[in-house]
Amino acid sequence: MYSFIYEIIIICLIPFALVKLFYRGLLNFNQLKYFNEHFAIYSKDKRSLWKSRQTVWLHCVSVGETKAVFNLIQILLKKHPKTYFLISHGTLTGRNTKLPNSPRIHRTYLPYDTSGAGKRFLSYFQPKIGLILETELWFNLINQCRLHQVPLHLINARLSKRSLNKYLPFRKFTNNRLSQFNAIFVRSKQDLDNFTQLTDANLQIMGNIKFESRPPKGNREKINQLRKKLRITNQFVLVAGSTRPGEEKILLELVKKINHKDLILVIAPRHPERFIEVEKIFQAQNLKIIKKSKLARLNKAPKYILVDTMGDLYEIYGIASLAVMGGSILDYGGQNPIEPMSLNIQTAVGPSIYNFKDLVNDAIKSKAIFSFQDIEELEQIIKSLLVEKKINQDILSNAREYLKKSSGSTEKVVRLINQYL
Fold it and tell me: I want to staple 243 with a disulfide (CB 3.0 to 4.6 A). Which of 285, 326, 386, 399 is the partner?
């Protein structure tokens, strides 16, 4: 009964999803490329190719998950030279995120979660094993994997208290579907406790593979080139990465209040459809903001910079004196701070951290990251660093140690996949 209701709900939601997709297509035509994949309609000519291949399927909905598997895929390409890797996505930004360059990697959109689309997806690609990252729970697809006898694992799984409370009213149905996973590998003890309240599935703590994310090759050279283009020498660069609505204005007002001649604000919105919106915030106050996509010859370093490009956050964080995690200032749950920390950049996170609660709390306990509860505390952090005119080496040293002790999950995933190949 629940399965039938879920199917009807998904079918009813598809028209709304299409309206959203076409709207985004008006802003960026690339959103409509591969439209057929949303319905699991593929070329008949290549069906026999996929049937003859040994394929590992990983679902990485967006940018963060895709970056997280970069190192994993590099290892698997070397260990299994005859294996193909199917990477499915839910967003254009995820699909455009860089992965290792190999003809054995194929990328596609995950279809809308109807039983028919899930059946066509699995029948066409015929993966030997499927791995879904984090919290992408598509219940019809999970069921189709069981019916097609495709081993399916949820890895890097996280479940906040907020998400748990949303699922609990439907525990019977959710438990039924989650129990169809061969195993659910969670990131932390807190995630384990939350999943335990929701399901009787096979649960294990594996850790977080994002700790082993590494900057792409050539990143250091790109950072140096960007610094040169922006005329950045000894200025204090405040980089706000993956910002959400309302946060840009707060940061702008903060920088204006501090009013330091050597303070530069770099804003990198999380979603590309907001680039114009963020630019208008500065224009409304008659402030000149330089866009990264249109860097011209500069005579001096700009005061405000808008990152209106995607896939280059490692490069952007690399020029930072202090990186502030977007989504943590207002109630959006925060973003993963590992990227700037792995670049040896001082990092600060605000009060909203429920998306990465254990990770951030552990980093705070390890004194590996700055934490602020309101914008006044962030102001004091920035002023202190500006006055001292030096990097807090204790924070950076603690961050390196914290990342080192938290690594090891990628090798566990490799061993898991090896069992099926």
Answer: 326
Q: Could you tell me where the DSSP H helices lie in 80-131?
A: 92-96, 115-125
Residues of the chain with CATH 3.40.50.11720: 32-208+407-418
Q: What is the CATH number of domain 32-208+407-418?
A: 3.40.50.11720
Relative to beta strand 152-157, strand 183-186 is: parallel
| Residue 419 to residue 194: CA distance in whole angstroms | 28
CA distance 361 to 312: 27
Residue whose C-alpha is closest to residue 237's, from 320, 305, 294: 320
Tokens of 257: 């209040």
Q: What are the φ and ψ backbone dihedral angles of 258, each rounded to 5 degrees?
A: -65, -40
User: Other CB atoms closer than 10 Å to residue 93's CB: what's the count?
Assistant: 17
- Token pair in block for residue 91: 């967003």
First CA to last CA across the chain, in angstroms?
Answer: 37
Distance in angstroms (rounded) separating the CA atoms of residues 339 and 228: 22
CA distances from 380 to 173, 255, 376 (A): 49, 12, 6
| pLDDT tens sequence across 211-243 | 887 777 788 899 999 999 999 998 999 999 999
SS3 content of the chain, % helix, strand, coil (to 5): 50, 15, 35
Domain(s) labelled CATH 3.40.50.2000 in the chain stretch across 219-405
Cα–Cα–Cα angle for 132, 133, 137, rounded to 5 degrees: 60
* Cβ–Cβ under 8 Å, residues 156 and 187: yes
One of 3.50.50.60, 3.40.640.10, 2.40.110.10, 3.40.50.2000 is the CATH number of 219-405, namely 3.40.50.2000
Stated pTM of the model: 0.79
CB atoms within 10 A of CB 136: 18
Contact 414, 75 (CB under 8 A): yes
CB atoms under 10 Å from CB of 165, counted, come to 11
Cα separation, 322 vs 382, in Å, equals 8
Higher pLDDT, 321 or 28: 321
In angstroms, the CA 300 to CA 232 distance is 8
